[in-house]
Amino acid sequence: MDKLAAIAIGSNSPSGKGDSLATVISALVEIQRDIGQIVAVSRFFRTPAYPPGSGPEFVNAAALVASSMSAEEVLAALHRIEAAAGRTREIRWGARTLDLDLLILGDTVLPDRETQKAWMALPLEKQKQDAPDRLILPHPRIQDRGFVLIPLAEIAPAMVHPVTGLTVAEMVNALSKAEKATICPL
C-alpha cells in the first residue's frame, strides 16, 4: 500500500546535471523513476545556506511522492540519487550538489517516539557535531527550517507531523517573520 512521502530537495553547488536549478529538476525525474509517483511539487525557492555563512544560496523545493517503499528503501534511493549528482558527505552542512531529505512518510515514526523527540530537542551546537547513525523519522529538524517548511506548505499545508500533531501550516506560522523573509520564490 502506498504512503505519501514528503521529500525536501536542495542544491547550492553545480553538479554534472548542471547548475543548482537543473540539478533539482533532474532529481525530481529520478525520484519519480526510483521511488514513486510524484503527486505534487512546490515552486522553486532561493534560500540562504544553513547554517548561515556555510555556502552559497540554495535552490529548494518539496515534493510529495506516493510510494510503496519502506522508509529505509526511500532513504537508500535518495542517497543513490544524491551520489549520482556528485554528492559527497565530507563536511557537515557544507555546500551540496544535491541534498534530498525524507521529511515524513505517512505516519511512520522511526526508530521510536522517544528517540525521535530526543533528536528534535538536540541543541544547535550538538547538531553541528552529532549525526544520527540511523534513520530518524519524521526528520528531526523539519519544524525548525523554513527552507523546508515553506515549500512543503505550498503542497501539503494540512500534512500532520506524526509526533507533534502540528500541521505544516502551523509549523510555518511558528517561524519568525525574519526567517520567512529570506525564502523567495524563483
Automatic annotation (TrEMBL):
Keywords annotated in UniProt: ATP-binding, Folate biosynthesis, Kinase, Nucleotide-binding, Transferase
Annotated GO MF terms: 2-amino-4-hydroxy-6-hydroxymethyldihydropteridine diphosphokinase activity
Name of the featured protein: 2-amino-4-hydroxy-6-hydroxymethyldihydropteridine pyrophosphokinase
Native species: Albidovulum litorale
InterPro entries membership: Hppk, Hppk_sf
Pathways involved: Cofactor biosynthesis; tetrahydrofolate biosynthesis; 2-amino-4-hydroxy-6-hydroxymethyl-7,8-dihydropteridine diphosphate from 7,8-dihydroneopterin triphosphate: step 4/4
Function: Catalyzes the transfer of pyrophosphate from adenosine triphosphate (ATP) to 6-hydroxymethyl-7,8-dihydropterin, an enzymatic step in folate biosynthesis pathway.
Family the UniProt entry places it in: Belongs to the HPPK family.
Segments crossing the lipid bilayer: none
EC number: 2.7.6.3
Domain (7,8-dihydro-6-hydroxymethylpterin-pyrophosphokinase): residue spans on this chain: 92-103
